[in-house]
Design brief:
Order of helices and strands: HEHEEEEEEEEEEEEEEEH
Structural class: mainly beta
Shape: globular
Helix content: under 10%
Low-confidence stretches: 1-7
Largest sheet: 6 strands, parallel
Distance between the termini: 53 Å
Number of helices: 3
Length: 203
């Protein structure tokens, strides 16, 4: 708790040891590394000084100042569902990582990019439909989502990144569009793919 000008590994360690519920980001903070806040498993609110030119807070979650990037969802929130605001165009790396209470997340088709590990280790996440604007499932996006049942990929997805679905259980169903062209190393884990195209296109 306090003004932070750069979140480093030390913050992650402190969050892991101490049950931090609130993080205050100062006017001077320029870079916030979302992954460090993922270890704050009791974190319920990320507050930003209103004079900060780079970030702002909405309902305790961290966004870019213009609201187009969801930087970090407070991972200790107990709500089971979350609807991403329509202003968002990008979900940052590790934005939802370790949000253990979330069962589902909704998003608009205005979102065009989702960062690596965005939903990693969301232990309760069961289903999600990605935006029609997203072209790649980033590396380790759903890593460790043990209860994940199905993911519907948008019709623009052409690549599934490295280890995107690793350690996400044995019963995951991925509904993939015919635009899918390339799957990086271990991209599917043990998931079953339901491909919306011909056998020839899949091969």
């Amino acid at each position: 708790d306090g003004g932070l000008t750069g979140l480093q590994d030390a913050v992650a360690i402190l969050c892991f040891i101490i049950e931090v519920k609130t993080v205050n980001i100062s006017e001077a903070a320029e870079v916030v590394q979302a992954y460090t806040l993922s270890y704050c498993k009791s974190l319920e609110s990320i507050n930003v000084d209103s004079r900060n030119p780079y970030y702002k807070t909405i309902d305790g979650n961290l966004y870019s100042k213009d609201g187009t990037v969801l930087v970090k969802y407070a991972s200790g929130k107990t709500e089971s569902t979350f609807e991403i605001p329509d202003s968002v165009r990008k979900i940052g790396e590790s934005a939802f990582e370790c949000s253990r209470h979330l069962i589902s997340v909704g998003m608009s088709d205005q979102i065009t990019e989702i960062g690596a590990r965005a939903f990693a280790n969301c232990k309760s996440l069961k289903s999600i439909k990605l935006s029609e604007g997203v072209t790649k499932v980033a590396s380790r996006m759903f890593y460790g989502c043990e209860k994940l049942e199905y993911v519907i990929l948008g019709k623009s997805v052409s690549v599934i990144g490295k280890e995107a679905f690793n350690c996400s259980g044995f019963n995951v169903k991925i509904y993939a569009p015919r635009t899918l062209q390339y799957i990086e190393r271990d991209g599917l884990g043990y998931a079953d793919v339901y491909f919306d195209g011909t056998k020839a296109e899949w091969q």
